[in-house]
Amino acid sequence: MRLERFASKEDLYARAVDIIVNAKNEGATTFGLATGGTMEPLYAEICETNIDFTNCISFNLDEYVGLSAKHEQSYAFYMYKHLFHHKPFEKSYLPNGIADNPTEEAARYESLLQQHSLDFQLLGIGQNGHIGFNEPGTSFDSLTHLVTLEESTRQANARFFDSIDEVPTQAFTMGIQSIMRAKSILLIAVGEDKRDVLERVLASKFTEEIPASILMKHPNVTILTDLQKGENVQ
Ligand code: GLP
Q1: Hey, what domains does the chain have and what are their CATH numbers?
Q2: How far apart are CA 154 and CA 40, in angstroms?
Q3: Please, where are the H alpha helices in the chain?
Q4: How far apart are CA 92 and CA 168, in angstroms?
Q5: Mutation probe of ligand 1 site: the residue of 157, 192, 196 with most atoms within 8 A of C-beta
Q6: Which residues does 121 contact at the CB level (< 8 Å), separation at least 6?
Q7: Hey, whose CA ends up nearest to atom 11 of ligand 1?
Q8: pLDDT, tens digit (0-9, with 9 covering 90-100), for 111-158
Q9: 53-91, pLDDT tens digit by residue?
């Protein structure tokens, strides 16, 4: 695991763009993508570059159940708005939040993922240690599945909705095993509200209660943070 700390968010996101450009230059064609507030500045930066993803495939980590791609808070809409509209991929996959049969949809998505192995996976992190929407307690062996969101996750994401009542209660997410199959992983943890969880992840105690703790076992993971050493982060 490589941990890189930045004094400014500007420098952090510039480094993240470099890592993605380098991955692509080194032959990565299949990218796992993430959503959330953390990724908005990154996608804005990427849109300013001349990187071309038109020969690449993307897979998003997760999608809310019950929201169609036209819903402004769906992750499909988010991706179109922040990235795909400006930087299209040859093909972009997300779970279908309004699939009739959730079990079949999770299996369909996992099967697609297994057909196209991920060269690169981008990750944010939830305050409870979730990656994608793999909440604490999720098996490290999990594949793409339907999850019931923790109340704390719904509250953390309520800022994107008009009220908490509108935040979906369920989501599809790649599993931990699906994520860990990626050849390289970039996790970005920005802001004070990620301090506790980053400290817990860096402590390298592997526990399903902290889903992101498994990343310390991945052979090629980089963590970028703006949290400085000496403030309780190792
Ligand atoms: C969300 C997403 C995650 C994201 C995380 C952090 O719920 N499902 O993929 O990484 O929580 O989000 P944010 O960047 O807004 O803090």
Answers
A1: 2-225 (3.40.50.1360)
A2: 19
A3: 9-25, 39-48, 75-79, 102-115, 151-157, 176-180, 195-202
A4: 23
A5: 157
A6: 31, 32, 179, 182, 184, 185, 186
A7: 126
A8: 999 999 999 999 999 999 999 999 999 999 999 999 999 999 999 999
A9: 999 999 999 999 999 999 999 999 999 999 999 999 999
Instruction: Please tell me if the CB atom of residue 153 comes closer than 6 angstroms to any atom of ligand 1.
Output: yes
Is the CB of 33 inside a 6 Å radius of any atom of ligand 1? Answer: no
Q: Which protein residue's CA is at the shortest distance from atom 13 of ligand 1? A: 36
Catalytic choice (110, 119, 135, 226): 135
Task: Give CA separation, 168 vs 71, 76, 211, in Å.
Answer: 12, 15, 21
The model's pLDDT over 199-234, given as tens digits with 9 standing for 90+, comes to: 999 997 899 999 999 999 999 999 999 999 864 544
How far, in Å, are 33, 131, 137, 144 from residue 60 at the CA level? 5, 12, 22, 11
Q: Answer whether 20's CB lies under 8 Å from 51's CB.
A: yes
Token pair recorded at residue 196:
């506790």
Maximum Cα interatomic distance, the chain, rounded to a whole number of Å: 50
Measured distance CA(208)–CA(193) in Å, rounded? 21
Atom of ligand 1 nearest to the CA of 34: 9
